[in-house]
């Protein structure tokens, strides 16, 4: 779905909210969906002092913003037309600056800093570095405070020792589902010959705690952007920086699509009375100027998040002492690829119709220039055959769904039509079972499995939202989502 289509969905939902058509118990959720569709995703960087948070923030921002030598408190950086900053002092008062000079700000000894600047990356994300110098207890409090202000979490570490594990254990499940562990300073470990063993150890310690674990040679990634503005993409890839950027962009796109899907369900339930007025125009995201002014304190030059394509990120062997291997172990159930398009509502028998094969999805026309198209094409892996483990998992899933469907068909044949609420509940249970089953079975590196995990995960979320109202009119939606998932599995088996 294009950015214009996302913005149109947001406009419609704003119109429905203004008309008072959303029930009170759903209004807060609807407003949150509007925010998700119209505002940049909030990325928060955590970690103990010295873990490389500021340098990683510079990498994501694509500009020289934070100087690790200046002892700043927690800093939030968002998009804006000009550079400016505001400091909150210990007595609660604020000091405003028409610039962002880290040394000058640090001299005020603030407890919080908010900065705005016209960086391209800030059209998609905002970045907050959480600073807690008082040990694990202070960092735990900061983690809890940041939970409601975070969409994607990044934990910077070199060891993820017991103190770090204790702090992160208290993170919400949502933060963990959208959380990345980043092994910073991976170049030094590579030179020491200890990188692979450290990565293996981190995967054991954080296996159930993070969406992905990614080693990044942060300074090498920053150095991939040359003085003339060009990017050494091979160096960026070897450093692990490109993998991290790609994963964050995938998570951004996945979250946006999930919000749009849920908004469309609300709009189907509570359609607008009339077309939204032109004055209610909502931009998909701020469009800052192409570069930051000279008032930003220089540190080093880094690549821009928003400019990177979405390469496939697979583990590769370490090829040189100064290179960080592109390890990106999927360790939690939430997958990265986008959810397939939701089908139209089809009032059909869930068991018979589910045997049809999924038709090829329509694609949006591309407007990128030739160079961008070439880069994306080069980063897209060829379609690979299913591994035996994934094929077995898919076949078992089809068998289980078929048995469940046959039971419903038999009940309907004996006692007439099934009650709508029962059908909705059992369909939601089947989709949740499928999501849980695919998250634990199959070969994780299979692209088809990653896609189906994403589809099942988000479908389960959608059905939970639809169950809130318990409206019998939603049966068609429930059935169509289940059919879409089964067709996706059958298509993968037939490929």
From TrEMBL:
Segments of this protein annotated with the region Disordered: 274-344, 358-379
Comp. bias intervals (Acidic residues): 363-376
Biased composition (Low complexity): 276-303
InterPro entries for this protein: P-loop_NTPase (IPR027417)
Record-given protein name: G domain-containing protein
Phylogenetic classification of the source organism: Bacteria, Pseudomonadati, Pseudomonadota, Alphaproteobacteria, Rhodobacterales
